[in-house]
From TrEMBL:
Pyrrolo-quinoline quinone repeat domain sequence ranges: 481-624
Record's protein name: PQQ-binding-like beta-propeller repeat protein
Lineage per the UniProt record: Bacteria, Pseudomonadati, Bacteroidota, Sphingobacteriia, Sphingobacteriales
Entry keyword Glycosyltransferase: no
Every Calcineurin-like phosphoesterase N-terminal domain range: 39-103
Taxonomic superkingdom: Bacteria
Keyword Signal among record annotations: yes
Keywords: Signal
PANTHER family for this protein: CELL SURFACE PROTEIN, OUTER MEMBRANE PROTEIN ASSEMBLY FACTOR BAMB
Signal peptide: 1-22
Domain named Calcineurin-like phosphoesterase: residues: 117-288
Pfam family name, one: PQQ_2
Length: 800
């Protein structure tokens, strides 16, 4: 009896011990047959890291692991090691009835030990299938992208369900990872419940190529999550403690949650990410294209969504990111929806031709979202189709290829030019264009010269001062290409180049021999017009988000620039601050132009309001945000007493002094473009996001005529997308008036000249989106396109 009692007590203690110290058990194994089940012939893998979100452990020699049970844990997840990918998912949902948690891994033949290419997408926010998905999948297949990282805002229940079905690892062909954004915390048992059901744990890590990736969730959003920032930090410390010290750390979150010190903070805990060899911080959230490098060698990388224009009218794109053992080696923006885009810019005819006695220049626009362009050849064909000459063109920017031909003996013949584009996947595209080399031409505009500055131009229209033309370029890829360049007005020859720390996305200003600019990081530059040397520099914003994208304005030796509580009036001569705004803050970047009229400074913040300040004191006089006026993408125009401004779907005429409404249009047009209205004697002419440009009666604001452009080549207007299967004919540039004509560029790549009644005078195919306004100086018209091409046209006639 005593022996039985003793055995019973021991058994009871053992059961209690197992209940108290119950464990999760399983294996990580090499899944040779890829069936997601561990079989006798398949070996376990040692030293593979696993976690339940609270504790972190490694597998034993045979690939087995034991992890103490935690009632708060919902998943077990494996840190997929470099060179491998999960045969199923990298996570398994914890189930009390489950006895074993086995994780299968398979070798990833696309990965290399010393380098990695992956794709970042973000803020897709859609339940609609679009061509961008095919673009990304095919790009990854053809150009060796190893994985896809979605940095959040999938968005709401419909978008999350759609992405789980259509944008997953199986269908995309490479591991596809997701991050929790603020709009991915939705109604449910707790904010992240649906995300977990569809995508697994909200924080986790994996390794690929030479890098260690950590994915963390947004601290808050539309609904409260069950996790805390301190909880994430506690896990993160344990995960990173098992990271190889020299391995680059790629940190993922939906927003930039750290300051310049790269310390992630909770309520009671914190972690210094620099201590773990942080080399890149990827985020989204702001719907803009803004990547920059820190003093500590960290690449801070953000992109707009691939399927629509950004909140600050950034182009739709996805990022291709190359990493090596030292960190990020290259970032390449890719613009979706383009396939075999091939355009001959010149020669086309006498109006579009640059030649001397010996050679004729060739310029082409070539772009393919999915494929890498290896080479472009131009072949001159006579009227019988016989090849006369072939020229290999050189790439000068991401869209533009250039070269030249020797002039044919018969200078008055008609020819064809065949463009041959060869891609990295060994495919080829051919396109033929007519070249009419007539002795005369009656075109309104004739090309005088064209140069490419080697980087993209966003909204910086050419600034003409005397015999110089100044233009600013952007660089959303930390490639050192953001700059201000001075060109000779008569030839386009470069005079000087000044490199800025970040992209100058908007117009330059000029005053008293100084070229003035504000970059996206909120730094102001004053540059000597002749030598290109820095005279003074001023940091206004400290690099805060959102990035600065407005165009400043000069009046009476004062440069007005900045936004929110760093909107400032600055003396041009020495950079001293006259006043700094303290009356309002917030909103997103306004990519329109500031305006001064009658002592008023008119500005705005997108998703906030239209603001009118006193120029001398900076005092806020009035603001207006009703009826769509809080959507500030474009600037305002003014006459003696009124302001004309667009807001979402309507045009407004407002009293300058008080902001009271004088007239309001009733339209269905989308005015979320960067342009300001043009005022003529009788009309208000306003570009649109989807319907080209429209003219309205100046007093009644009733529509008088419209001019439809073609489908945009890139999508920039906020939330504009081709996925709705409606035409997107965007014009981002304000219309200019000169010589009795209207001038503007379209996102379709055409330069347009219209009569005042909206009838077409001339349409010139430049083959690349034109976002910036044309600049007209006497008899010359200067144009800058998105590919970095700068053009000078001569007005040759008063053709009606």
């Amino acid at each position: 009896m005593k022996s039985f009692t003793h055995k019973f007590i021991l058994s009871l203690l053992l059961l209690c011990s197992n209940a108290i110290y119950a464990q999760y058990r399983g294996h990580v194994f090499l899944d040779l047959d890829k069936n997601k089940k561990m079989e006798s012939a398949e070996k376990g893998m040692k030293d593979i890291v696993l976690s339940d979100g609270y504790e972190v452990t490694k597998t034993a020699e045979d690939g087995s692991f034991d992890l103490k049970k935690n009632d708060k844990a919902r998943f077990l997840f494996v840190r997929v090691p470099a060179g491998y990918k999960a045969s199923g998912t990298h996570y398994i949902k914890i189930d009390p009835k489950r006895e074993n948690y086995d994780f299968g891994l398979i070798q990833d033949e696309k990965q290399e030990a010393d380098k990695l290419r992956f794709i970042q997408i973000t803020d897709t926010e859609t339940p609609l299938y679009g061509e961008w998905i095919d673009n990304i999948r095919k790009f990854s297949q053809q150009q060796n992208a190893t994985l896809i990282m979605h940095t959040g805002d999938i968005c709401y229940e419909p978008g999350m369900q759609f992405h789980a079905r259509q944008v997953n690892t199986e269908l995309m062909g490479v591991p596809t990872y997701y991050t929790v954004g603020n709009h991915d915390l939705v109604k449910g048992e707790y904010g992240e419940k649906l995300f977990e059901d569809l995508f697994g744990p909200v924080y986790y890590s994996f390794e690929a190529g030479p890098a260690h990736f950590v994915v963390t969730p947004m601290p808050g959003g539309d609904y409260a999550p069950s996790y805390s920032q301190d909880q994430v930090i506690a896990w993160l410390k344990k995960d990173l403690a098992l990271k190889t010290k020299d391995k680059p750390l790629i940190f993922i979150n939906h927003d930039l949650l750290v300051g310049k010190d790269f310390v992630m903070r909770g309520k009671t805990d914190s972690i210094d990410l620099k201590q773990y060899n942080l080399k890149a911080y990827l985020y989204g959230h702001w719907h803009n294209n803004y990547s920059f490098g820190s003093r500590d060698g960290v690449a801070v990388i953000s992109t707009n969504a691939p399927n629509k224009g950004g909140i600050d009218n950034s182009a739709a794109q996805f990022l291709v990111i190359d990493v090596d053992k030292r960190g990020v080696s290259k970032i390449t923006p890719k613009y979706p929806y383009l396939s075999d885009h091939i355009a001959l810019i010149y020669p086309q005819s006498k109006q579009m031709q640059i030649s001397n006695r010996k050679e004729i220049e060739i310029s082409t626009s070539v772009y393919h979202t999915e494929k890498n362009v290896i080479s472009v050849y131009a072949t001159l064909l006579n009227k019988f189709g016989t090849a006369i000459k072939t020229a290999k063109l050189k790439p000068v920017s991401d869209w533009n290829w250039r070269g030249n031909f020797t002039v044919p003996r018969c200078a008055d013949q008609q020819y064809d030019i065949m463009l041959e584009v060869n891609y990295g996947d060994s495919t080829q595209a051919l396109k033929k264009f007519a070249w009419h080399n007539e002795p005369t031409s009656t075109a309104f505009l004739q090309l005088a010269w064209s140069k490419n500055i080697g980087s993209n131009v966003w909204k910086s229209s050419p600034l003409v001062q005397g015999q110089r033309v100044y233009v600013a370029s952007i660089d959303d890829a930390i490639g050192g290409k953001s700059k201000i360049q001075a060109l000779k007005a008569q030839s386009g020859e470069t005079i000087w180049t000044f490199h800025t720390q970040n992209s100058v996305k908007q117009k330059l200003a000029y005053s008293n021999g100084l070229v003035l600019a504000t970059d996206m990081g909120g730094t102001v530059y004053a540059i000597d017009e002749k030598e290109g040397k820095l005279v003074w520099k001023k940091d206004l914003s400290g690099g805060r988000l959102p990035g600065y994208v407005s165009a400043g304005v000069v009046r009476d030796g004062i440069y007005y620039t900045g936004a929110g509580n760093y909107l400032s009036a600055i003396k041009v001569e020495d950079g001293k601050t006259v006043w700094r705004n303290s009356d309002w803050n917030g909103g997103e970047g306004m990519p329109g132009e500031l305006l001064i009229t009658n002592g008023y400074l008119i500005t705005g913040a997108n998703w906030n309001a239209l603001f009118v300040h006193d120029c001398k004191t900076g005092k806020l006089l009035w603001k207006k945000n009703e009826d769509g006026l809080r959507f500030r993408t474009g600037g305002a125009s003014a006459d003696e007493n009124s302001l004309y401004v667009a807001g979402l779907n309507n045009l407004f005429r407002l009293d300058q002094k008080k902001g009271t409404l004088l007239t309001k249009s009733q339209t269905d047009d989308d005015f979320k473009v960067m342009a300001s209205p043009l005022l003529t004697e009788e009309r208000v002419i306003m570009p649109t996001a989807t319907n080209g440009i429209k003219a309205f009666d100046r007093n009644a604001l009733t529509e008088k005529w419209s001019f439809q452009t073609e489908e945009a080549l890139i999508y920039s207007s906020a939330y504009s997308t081709p996925d709705l299967h409606k035409k997107v004919a965007t014009v981002e540039s304000s219309v200019r008036y000169a010589a009795g004509k209207l001038f503007f560029g379209g996102s379709d790549g055409y330069l347009y000249v219209l009569n005042l009644d909206g009838t077409l005078v001339q349409k010139v195919n430049l083959g690349t989106p034109i976002l910036a306004e044309v600049s007209i100086h006497g008899n010359e018209v200067f144009v800058a396109d998105f590919a970095g091409n700068i053009y000078c046209f001569n007005i040759t006639t008063t053709k009606k």
